[in-house]
Amino acid sequence: MPVGYVGHGAPTLVFDKQKGADLRRWADEMPRPRAMLVISAHWQDTPVSIGTTERRELMYDFYGFPKELYEVEYDAPAAPELADRVAALLGEKQPVQREDRAMDHGVWVPMVHMAPAADIPILQISLPSQAGPKALFELGRKLAPLRDEGIFLLGSGSLVHNLRRIDFSERSSPESWAVEFDQWAAETLAQRNFDELIDYRNHAPGLRIAHPTVEHFEPILVAAGAASVDEVSTSFPVEGFEFGNLSRRCVQFG
């Protein structure tokens, strides 16, 4: 299986058929996975924690949006066997099991489009941000064997994410700093320059404005780690911006 990173956009993406069609096309062009393992920017917990292995109601982890968003349902099967396999791959440091932790919108918003039938088992694990970039990359390497077992590893975030500099009217174009950061990320990933990616704090242009906080960037480190174990191509099935400066770029390794 390939490895992916999705720009999950605003929660309202769930109702956007045009943008959702881009995600659906991307998913349709990939092999059908046996299950999905998703690492979202919206669950940061160190050490790695494993989310629910039972079907639960979704987590609506946002506020101030239309009522309809809080009524969306996405009843995908749970993946308890995958949870056991993840725990085994992580070895001595057994992850915390959080049966109370339902899928957040960084998971179910893109999944509504990528797997609309909700018939693929999904497991979410936490993003251990406090461990640092190198540890996040190594986490991906530890999880890489899942690719040979039919599991689609997906990081969910946004390669440019500054909520103070977005325009929900969609009338504005991306500013130069957003374009520059997005292009740096694309070039670094395409060249498989993983050392620079890991050391992004010293290499990425305009990091403080592109990511006032870095949780939406960090899932790409896990995805890149999982892709680093062999020589696979890098492509960008979705590109561009929305709401002014929010990157829509999605990444596929393999």
From TrEMBL:
The keyword tRNA-binding does not apply. Its cofactor is Zn(2+). Residues 22-231 form the Extradiol ring-cleavage dioxygenase class III enzyme subunit B domain. InterPro entries: Extradiol_dOase_DODA, Xdiol_dOase_suB. It holds the Pfam family LigB. The keyword Metal-binding applies. GO terms for molecular function: ferrous iron binding; oxidoreductase activity, acting on single donors with incorporation of molecular oxygen, incorporation of two atoms of oxygen; zinc ion binding. Keywords: Dioxygenase, Metal-binding, Oxidoreductase, Zinc. Belongs to the DODA-type extradiol aromatic ring-opening dioxygenase family. This is Dioxygenase. The lineage of its organism: Bacteria, Deltaproteobacteria, Bradymonadales, Bradymonadaceae, Persicimonas.
